[in-house]
Amino acid sequence: MAALSDIPAAPSSGARTTKLAIVGAGAVGSTLAFAALARGSARTIALHDVNRAKVEAEVLDLQHGLMFTPQAQVIGSDDVAVCAGADVVVVTAGAKQKPGQTRIDLAEGTIGLMRKILPGLVDVAPDATYVMVTNPVDVVTYAALKISGLPRERLFGSGTVLDSSRLRVVLAERCGVAVGNVHAYIAGEHGDSEIALWSSASIGGVPLLDWEPLGGNPPLDAAVRTEVHHEVVDSAYRIIAGKGATNYAVGLAATRIIEAVLNDEGRIMPVSSLLDDYHGISDVCLSVPSLVDRRGVTANMRVPMSYDELAGLRASAESVRAVQRQFGF
């Protein structure tokens, strides 16, 4: 019986097709593959994992749904060659976060794994854009840049894209509006030192700090904003305590990043990239609103920040940089 990676590609029509490679067939990787397949994010989805039985089972399960999705093929293998020629490589492999464990606690094991897998990935997919979706994402992204030698534009982390979605969901519920009417970002570390950018947030075109409550909802005063921020920061811990891992929302968040690259969207997203004199912050990977297109992360946007927000961003940078130093970066 042929390996799943030996399944022939669909006949070419001559048009450019897209290939997404996902490294890691765990909860996040397999959910990401499902989300990308259902959304039609790429024409080929390749799943790679060292556990051959696991990756082959995940691929077979996904293939059985192909008649219900946009046209695509799904392949997978324990051989890194399955990622060859990918346009985007998403790395989800890493140490699993346990209840009560911080993302920083995961750094040592995950950085060690990056040293093993990144050289082989770059060999087979040298022109790909790399997106790190493994924790602690900011530290791992910085380490991956150093290990791989890839330019900062083409290797970045998922950052606070998910955190920003969590913030918008909570604000939408508090204000009684649709999530799509809320525009707000979480910046800094994807972790405990992350900050909410209230100064640039808006709801239906109204600056959040000027928002007047609708339908008897409470005002978004400082106390409520602090409460909302705590809810966002604590949400991952609550999910992990209840079911062992976060996977659905991060899978959807990652597909939007992938689509921004593959479709050359020029979308502004708070991904984690290497900063260079961003409000005086350099040589650390942090999330700030950034322009994402086919070239990767091409610009970091200097959004308005209050004194406290800027101080929080600098403190977050120091927190991440301290962890980098612990691992020799």
Would you write up a description of this structure?
Its EC number is 1.1.1.27. The modification Phosphotyrosine is found at residue 237. Catalyzes the conversion of lactate to pyruvate. It comes from Promicromonospora alba. Helix content is 39%, strand content 16%. It has 329 residues and is α/β, with parallel strands linked by helices. The protein has two domains: 4-157, 3-Layer(aba) Sandwich (Rossmann fold); 161-326, Alpha-Beta Complex (L-2-Hydroxyisocaproate Dehydrogenase, Chain A, domain 2), CATH 3.90.110. The strands form five sheets. The chain has a six-stranded parallel sheet, sandwiched between helices. A three-stranded antiparallel sheet has the order 7-10-11, with helices on one face. Helix 1 links the parallel strand 1 (19-23) and strand 2 (44-48). The protein is globular and about 55 Å long.
Q: Topology, pairings included?
A:
Blueprint lengths: L18 E5 L3 H13 L4 E5 L3 H12 L9 E5 L10 E4 L15 H18 L4 E4 L4 H12 L6 E3 L3 H15 L6 E2 L2 E2 L7 E2 L5 E2 L2 E2 L14 H22 L4 H15 L4 E3 L2 E3 L10 E3 L2 E4 L2 E5 L6 H20 L3
Parallel strand pairs: 1-2, 1-4, 2-3, 4-5, 5-6
Antiparallel strand pairs: 7-10, 8-9, 10-11, 12-15, 13-14, 15-16
